[in-house]
């Protein structure tokens, strides 16, 4: 029997919010308190990131943590619910990374924009599985399947763009919009996460740090060249 994600979270003790109450929960406080579930989510993240939702096997996830198949279904009920837990955690971590980036009123907006590019690009090389899960969320055609992630998706879509816009408002010199900058940045993040042997190997750099240094320079050049270009 299919159990809706919101009802499953409440029944399993993963949240204190009853389904249908309409209360907005914190993505971090709604996580799994049980150590076993956390281990399963960690293992499932790698398997789902490598094989996708359809290609991933719950039995492979169970074997990765030395558990039985029934124990996985006991904790999550279904493969769908396990994937949702993985996707929720990945989204929450990406949103937290962006929201944790401070922008003081007296900062140099150009230096701060460069620091922001470096922060998120380095994260994509250190934690590529997060970005692969994010790509799966975007690629899934079943909108009902990703509906439980809607609040986190809204936070994800706005958090980075709002920070870029804030730096533009503080004087970052570019004629590009925050949405244009974010679109290019997401393309680089996706390419970093898609490299099976690591982004540095894919693009021929000595290390991921060297690749990120190049990508940060590329982003800055793109933004600043747009500022220097005369209006037609």
Describe the model.
This protein has 232 residues and is an all-alpha fold. It has twelve helices and no strands. Helix 2 (35-55) packs across helix 5 (79-99) and helix 5 (79-99) packs across helix 7. The longest helix is centred in the first third of the chain and has 21 residues, at 35-55. The protein is elongated.
**Euclidean distance between termini CA atoms:** 62 Å
Based on secondary structure, the structural category is mainly alpha
Helix content: 55-70%
**Please, what is the average pLDDT?**
82
- Low-confidence stretches are 20-33
Radius of gyration from CA coordinates: 20 Å
* DSSP strand content: under 5%
Question: For this entry, what is the oligomeric state of its chains?
Answer: single chain
> What is the number of helices?
12
User: What overall form do the CA principal axes indicate?
Assistant: elongated
**How are helices and strands ordered from N to C?**
HHHHHHHHHHHH
The number of distinct β-strands equals 0
**What about the largest sheet?**
none
Give the secondary structure arrangement, pairings included:
Elements: H1 5-11, H2 35-55, H3 58-64, H4 69-76, H5 79-99, H6 109-126, H7 128-139, H8 143-146, H9 150-169, H10 178-194, H11 199-203, H12 208-228
Helix pairs in contact: 2-3, 2-5, 2-7, 5-7, 5-9, 6-7, 6-10, 6-12, 7-10, 9-10
């Amino acid at each position: 029997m299919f159990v809706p994600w919101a009802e499953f979270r409440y029944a399993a003790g993963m949240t204190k919010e009853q389904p249908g109450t309409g209360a907005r929960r914190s993505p971090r406080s709604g996580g799994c308190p049980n150590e076993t579930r956390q281990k399963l989510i960690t293992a499932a993240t790698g398997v789902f990131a490598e094989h996708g939702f359809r290609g991933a096997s719950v039995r492979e996830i169970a074997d990765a943590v030395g558990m039985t198949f029934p124990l996985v279904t006991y904790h999550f009920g279904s493969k769908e619910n396990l994937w949702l837990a993985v996707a929720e955690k990945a989204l929450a971590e990406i949103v937290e990374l962006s929201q944790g980036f401070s922008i003081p009123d007296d900062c140099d907006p150009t230096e701060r924009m460069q620091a922001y590019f470096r922060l998120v690009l380095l994260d994509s090389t250190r934690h590529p599985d997060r970005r692969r899960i994010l790509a799966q969320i975007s690629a899934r055609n079943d909108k009902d399947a990703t509906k439980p992630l809607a609040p986190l998706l809204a936070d994800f879509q706005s958090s980075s763009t709002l920070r870029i816009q804030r730096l533009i408002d503080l004087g970052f010199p570019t004629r590009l919009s925050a949405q244009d900058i974010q679109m290019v940045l997401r393309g680089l993040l996706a390419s970093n996460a898609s490299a099976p042997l690591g982004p540095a190997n894919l693009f021929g750099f000595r290390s991921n740090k060297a690749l990120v240094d190049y990508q940060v320079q590329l982003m800055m050049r793109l933004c600043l060249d747009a500022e220097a270009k005369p209006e037609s």
